[in-house]
Write a structure and sequence with these properties.
Helices cover 38% and strands 22% of the residues. Helix 2 links the parallel strand 2 (31-38) and strand 3. The relative contact order is 0.15. The chain has 250 residues and is α/β, with parallel strands linked by helices. The protein has a single domain (2-249), classed as Spore Coat Polysaccharide Biosynthesis Protein SpsA, Chain A, CATH 3.90.550.
């Protein structure tokens, strides 16, 4: 069993849950705990999760419910507070861990001096998947802070965070397009970051996914302007490439 909690935010995620459950059953080693937080869903997500939990020891798989919809960041931050392992991975309910031995693949990178471990990316979006497969192998094992990761080479659901760092530096609330990148930059500026090429998370693009819609990155650009020139230039170029990919996908 790995010393990693997998936290799963859920909001009207019923169409994706059967595939997610199959993914979680395959994990070997298993995470120390799996914690679902239902963010006031209006579908039968919670009842589906209850049935899944019935297969397991309820000390290691739990379902929590928000009394009202807290949104992305509020639910993520609740997962951080409610889990107990040294490390946490927040896996969106419509994403999947690809390799059954994913937690073993990332284990050697969860070491002293490293605060975030970032796994590779796979996707059903052709352009995104192509870029991740072709350019992902050139990402350094310990990338410099200016090197963009989320969006092009990784998805937020593939990041393992040292939990104490998230308690000190919670996800920005309210979230905005690109806030996950700024948040990761903050964590990387204070501690080490490792990139794992051979472990990956499948990022599903579908009509309800945020990346399937035109997004306003004005707040992201304002926050990015506070960073050194090397970070600004690399991440601005990365944003332009991702926007091109999003337009091609639509």
């Amino acid at each position: 069993m790995a010393d990693v909690s997998v936290g799963i935010p859920v909001y009207n995620s019923a169409p994706f849950l059967d595939e997610l459950f199959a993914c979680l059953r395959r994990l070997d080693p298993a995470p120390a705990e799996i914690v679902f937080v239902d963010d006031a869903s209006t579908d039968d997500s919670a009842s589906r999760i209850d049935r899944f939990i019935g297969e397991f020891d309820r000390r290691t798989v739990r379902l929590l419910r928000n009394g009202s919809n807290l949104g992305i960041a509020g639910t993520y931050n609740r997962l951080v507070r409610e889990t107990s392992s040294e490390w946490i991975q927040v896996l969106d309910a419509d994403d999947l861990i690809v390799e059954s031995n994913f937690l073993a693949q990332t284990a050697k990178y969860r070491q002293r001096g490293v605060d975030v471990v970032v796994a590779g990316l796979r996707s059903n979006a052709g352009f995104l998947n192509f870029c991740a497969r072709v350019f992902g192998p050139v990402v350094p094992r310990y990338p410099p802070i200016w090197w963009p990761l989320l969006g092009s080479f990784a998805t937020r659901a593939g990041v393992q965070y040292r939990r104490e760092r998230l308690l000190a530096q919670p996800f920005p609330d309210p979230a905005y397009p690109g806030s996950d990148i700024i948040h990761l930059l903050m964590l990387r500026s204070a501690g080490g970051c490792a990139y794992v090429r051979r472990a990956s998370v499948f990022y599903r693009v579908h009509r309800n996914a945020q990346s399937s819609h035109e997004r306003d990155y004005a707040a992201y650009r304002r926050e990015l302007a506070r960073w050194p020139a090397s970070v600004r230039r690399a991440h601005s170029l990365d944003l332009r490439m991702r926007q091109l990919g999003q337009r091609l996908a639509r």
